[in-house]
Write a structure and sequence with these properties.
Layout lengths: L12 H15 L6 E7 L5 E11 L4 E6 L3 H8 L2 E8 L4 E11 L2 H10 L2 H9 L9 H15 L9 E15 L7 E6 L8 E5 L2
């Protein structure tokens, strides 16, 4: 039984998440889809950074990045992640924890092709997370790659998507006197039904 109502109501957590993000798209001044993504390496050392959530699908949350970046290497060693979406204007947040799998080549190609030309060139030019001698070196690489690819750069082999397949999704809304409302959807695997629980603030 789903004990939720109001802004928390629904039979599907992905639909609730999409509805909240749609509201935030109207109220947030910048990047309503920005998530603080946490990963951990094989030694368990955590790291966190902001990335852009690009899709809320019916079974996963999707983002794209350089596979050779710090986060890409951490996910190769330990394919689990967590993130939080936080919206100051709505005073709400969504927390997600789960396993991570690569996005399909087809989906990664399609999303890459939809990006601005400058961003596609940038994906080639940046050895993300590696030391950089100067900005001039980066801009020189951009010029060289513009000359090489023109207006049709293909997707780099080191760049693509990740799917976070959640084991838990928590919806949080600010309450007076710090008496917040929290509902957690959890399940052991994608084959199990969701269990919904109200949590203490």
């Amino acid at each position: 039984m789903n004990p939720t109502d109001g802004i928390f109501a629904g039979e599907n957590p992905y639909e609730i998440a999409r509805a909240w993000l749609a509201e935030a798209t109207i109220t947030e001044p910048n990047d309503p889809n920005a998530i603080a993504l946490a990963t951990a390496d094989s030694a368990g050392l955590p790291d966190v950074r902001m990335v852009l959530l690009k899709a809320i699908e019916d079974d996963a949350f999707v983002f794209y990045t350089n596979h050779d970046s710090d986060k890409g290497r951490a996910l190769a060693e330990n394919p689990q992640a967590a993130f939080v979406l936080h919206w100051k204007t709505l005073r709400r947040q969504i927390r997600v924890r789960g396993h991570v799998a690569p996005e399909t080549e087809t989906a990664s190609d399609a999303y890459f092709a939809s990006r601005a030309l400058e961003s596609r060139i940038g994906a080639w030019a940046s050895d993300q997370s590696r030391p950089l001698e100067s900005r001039a070196v980066l801009m020189q690489r951009v010029e060289q790659l513009n000359a090489r690819f023109g207006d049709a750069p293909p997707r780099p082999p080191h760049w693509g998507g990740y799917r976070i397949i959640p084991q838990s999704i928590e919806f949080w809304a600010d309450g007076a006197h710090r008496l917040h409302d929290r509902f957690r959807w959890s399940r052991e695997s994608a084959l199990n039904p969701w269990v919904v629980q109200r949590l203490y603030p």
